[in-house]
Amino acid sequence: MSGSKRIRCIVGSETVRMLNLGHPWVIADRYTSRWPQVKCGSLIELMSESGESMGTALYDSDSRIIAKRLSAKVVELDRNWLVARLEQAQKSRNWLDFGDTTVARLVNAEGDGLPGLTVDRYGDFLMVQYYTSAWEGYLPLLATALQEVYAPQGIYSKYRPQETRKLAAGKKGRPPQGRLLAGQAAPADLTVRENGLLYRIDLAKDLHTGLFHDQRKNRLEFRRLAAGCRVLNLFAYTGAFSVAAAAGGAVQVTSVDAAGRYLDWACENFRLNEITPEGHEFITGDCFVELDRLAKAARSFDIILMDPPSFSTTSKSRFSTSGGTADLVQKSLRLLTPGGLLVTSSNLQKMSLENYLKELRKGSLAVGRQLQVVSVSGQSDDFPFTASFPEGNYLKYVVSVVQDKV
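^ that's the sequence the OP posted. Answer follows.
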């Protein structure tokens, strides 16, 4: 496919090296500061100082990642190219076994050659999330390509800027986060199946849809582990892990979240699966405060799960994965029975597994207990990453047996 003549932008030797390794990002530097002024979302041709073409990139004037390479060739971002990319992503997932599941990631940004863009299937509907405004002008074209490849009933889009905390902290009456891009609107009671369990989804009104399905395979294993156990789920959100635990035969599941409306949603998910929520416990409050309260009440659990957002703020405390994880582990370990399980998870891309384990170690040492790691996992298989883009391997899910020192 030959591209029309477009603005050529010179990149430095280090960027050339990374591009040759297959990494799609161009980070702003002294070379990019000399680029001509072009509109955000423009296609540019990347060039080495020696005049070698490094391919086509999407220009993003609002980001430190000032350009994202779409192809090592000179291409047009048209319907044919998008359809080819989507069909490639579709074929790669033919290897996967989703089981009794109707929610999946169809396009995983850099992992599928469409940097800064994801596409998820929720039953008969698709959700496009774009993490740079550079994709905005191409959404109608993308919708046409998605309709050709997947034939959904409707397609939604949602802009996900880096500072999503500001969106999440919006006041009541804020406009919906998702908008209908093409096709029919989804019903208000839209539900999907994940490993045979039902969850209600909202494609329009919230920053998130109600289900983080990158945890699908981890939830299936958690369901098995929870049988006969007392389970504490911190940062429970809409209760996906809580439902899995209860469905797996947990004696009681205690779900804690700062937002009562999410716990109401969790109760609804329990009922969708014919599990009586009254047999379980739902606590609205700051997780750090509630951990102290549970400790004072001499409560104990066989399994504690903590899957916090990378950052969160409540009236009582602020949490960040770096530093906050150790404090959370320290407080949680006071409530775990010897031989119990601490299940911890983080989606913070910038933190390596090695540094995450250091946080777990710091928290366990503070209370004189040992964490014996028995399982380390990541995101579900439909969230692929390339060997050239290790940043795409972002999810850290660690299962540890809690041992008293002898």
